[in-house]
Amino acid sequence: METATPGDSLRRFVTAPLRVGTYKRLLYLLLAFPLGMLYFVGFTVGTSTGVSLLVTLVGLPILLATLAATTAAAGLEARLSRALLDMETPAPPLLSHPREWAVDTDEEGYVAALRRFTLEPTTWTSVGVVLLKFVFGVVTFSVVVIGGVTVAVLIPAPLVYDSPDTSYRLGSHVVTTLPEALALSVLGVVGLVVVCNLWNALAAVGGVMTDALLSVGRERETA
């Protein structure tokens, strides 16, 4: 196995804005907030509705449907991890091996399928994926927006610093000369390199989190 040298690491750090993988990871981060919000709302509404109706015959099917939808959401997260982060995150077995989950069309078959579904570890770790995705999405939204807006404002400074509709301030000092605007632009380029690496690191954290939760029980399957 090749070991990365300090020069290789520095090169990867500096060239982050030029790599396609960086923008695949940025897309992963941009999707995190809306998907996390959708997952959270769906899970909380389904769970609260199911629990409140447990005294009737409707509550349990709603809870099971919520768990099934949560598993499907985790499957989507595994697919995003593979497509955008180049990870080998496994989908829940219910989705990756659907033929093995075929249900016999009799009462005993449905009961056996239900028992297997509720005892499958990824049924419950998928809940963790969904809930953590909401928190992860809120964090990434803040990082992406703040970082992106900052570099987007700084880099074009030499082109717009003297526009009557634009004002660049460093504390109480107003940027009014081209050298000052060029310095801001250079700072923006440096910031872009830093922000791109931060995005890459944050996306990697999300991928590792999803992979860890959906890999529960994989050792048992491959043993």
Describe the protein's architecture and organization:
The chain is mainly α and 223 residues long. The protein has helices at residues 6-14, 20-52, 59-85, 93-96, 107-119, 121-154, 157-160, 178-214, 218-222, and strands at 169-170, 173-174. It is 74% helix and 2% strand. Strands 1-2 form a two-stranded antiparallel sheet. Strand 1 and strand 2 form a beta hairpin.
Which class do the helix and strand fractions yield? mainly alpha
Strand count: 2
**How would a textbook summarize the main sheet?**
2 strands, antiparallel
Q: What order do the helices and strands follow?
A: HHHHHHHEEHH
Mean pLDDT: 88
* Ends apart, CA distance between termini: 25 Å
Number of helices: 9
What features would you highlight for this structure?
223 residues, mainly alpha, two-stranded antiparallel ribbon, 9 helices, elongated
Give the SSE map.
Elements: H1 6-14, H2 20-52, H3 59-85, H4 93-96, H5 107-119, H6 121-154, H7 157-160, E1 169-170, E2 173-174, H8 178-214, H9 218-222
Antiparallel strand pairs: 1-2
Helix pairs in contact: 2-3, 2-6, 2-8, 3-6, 3-8, 6-8
Please sum up the structure shown:
With 223 residues, the protein is an all-alpha fold. It has helices spanning 6-14, 20-52, 59-85, 93-96, 107-119, 121-154, 157-160, 178-214, 218-222; strands spanning 169-170, 173-174.
